[in-house]
Design a protein that fits this description.
This protein is mostly helical. The protein folds into two domains: 12-71, Homeodomain-like (Arc Repressor Mutant, subunit A, Orthogonal Bundle); 77-194, Tetracycline Repressor, domain 2, CATH 1.10.357.10. Helices cover 70% and strands 0% of the residues. The protein is built from nine helices and no strands. The protein has helices at 12-32, 39-46, 50-57, 60-74, 84-100, 102-114, 119-145, 155-173, 179-194. The longest helix has 27 residues, at 119-145. The radius of gyration is 19 Å and the shape is elongated. Residues 1-8 and 202-207 have low confidence and may be disordered.
Length: 207
C-alpha cells in the first residue's frame, strides 16, 4: 500500500522532481486559482514528464495535499521569547508575514476557496492548520506552567485565537493584515486567555 502524498520525503532525483512540481503547482494556484490547476500544465512548468506527475500524484487534489504538507513542514519553527505575550506576538507576526507574501497569501486564498467543494482538499487544509497550531502549542503550555494562564487552558485554542483574525482579514478582504493587526491579535488572545476564556467550558448560569 503506497504512502499518502506528503508523508514521505524522498531524496535524490525524486526529491528534485517533487520540489519542481510542487513549486509549479504553487505558482499556478497563486496566479490563477484552484480551477486552473491542471496536472499537464504543472508538468510543463516543472519541466518533467506528464506521466511522472500523473503516476506520483494521480489527481489535482493529491497534488494539493502534498503541497500543503510541504508548506506545513517548511514553516518556521516556534520561537520562545521567555514570556507568553512575546511568544504569541512572534506567532502573530509570522502569520502576518506569510499572509503578506505575494505567493503564499494568494495560494492560501485559492486553496481555502476550493476546500468547500472538495473533501480531500478540505482535509488537507485542516491538517495544514493543525500542524501549524501543534508547532506553537508548547509555548502556551509553558505559559500555563509558569503561571501566566489558568490551569486547564486549552493551548491549541489560544494559538488559533491568535491566527484566526489575521486569516479572516486576508480571506474576506483579499488584503494582507498589517503588522499592527498582528500585534492586536496577539494581545487580544493573551488577554482572553488570562481571563480564563480558554480554560474549560463556561459555567451554566440560571435564568
Amino acid at each position: 500500500m503506497s504512502a499518502r502524498p506528503g508523508t514521505v520525503r524522498p531524496g535524490g532525483r525524486t526529491a528534485r522532481v517533487r520540489t519542481a512540481v510542487l513549486r509549479a503547482a504553487g505558482d499556478i494556484l497563486a496566479e490563477h486559482g484552484f480551477a486552473h490547476l491542471d496536472l499537464a500544465d504543472v508538468a510543463r512548468r516543472a519541466g518533467v514528464g506528464k506521466t511522472t506527475v500523473y503516476r506520483r500524484w494521480g489527481s489535482v487534489t493529491g497534488l494539493v495535499t502534498d503541497l500543503l504538507a510541504e508548506l506545513a513542514h517548511d514553516a518556521a519553527p516556534h520561537r520562545e521569547t521567555g514570556s507568553l505575550p512575546g511568544d504569541l506576538r512572534a506567532y502573530a507576526l509570522l502569520v502576518q508575514r506569510e499572509a503578506a507574501d505575494a505567493r503564499q497569501g494568494a495560494l492560501l486564498r485559492a486553496v481555502v476557496a476550493a476546500a468547500p467543494c472538495d473533501g480531500r482538499t478540505a482535509a488537507a487544509l485542516r491538517r495544514f492548520f493543525e500542524v501549524r497550531v501543534e508547532e506553537w502549542v508548547p509555548c502556551v503550555e509553558q505559559g500555563v506552567a509558569r503561571g501566566e494562564l489558568p490551569a486547564g487552558t486549552d493551548a491549541a485554542a489560544v494559538v488559533r485565537a491568535v491566527s484566526a483574525p489575521l486569516h479572516q482579514e486576508l480571506l474576506t478582504t483579499g488584503v494582507a493584515p498589517a503588522p499592527h493587526a498582528a500585534e492586536c491579535a496577539a494581545r487580544a488572545a493573551y488577554a482572553a486567555a488570562v481571563a480564563g476564556a480558554y480554560a474549560g467550558a463556561a459555567p451554566v448560569t440560571g435564568r
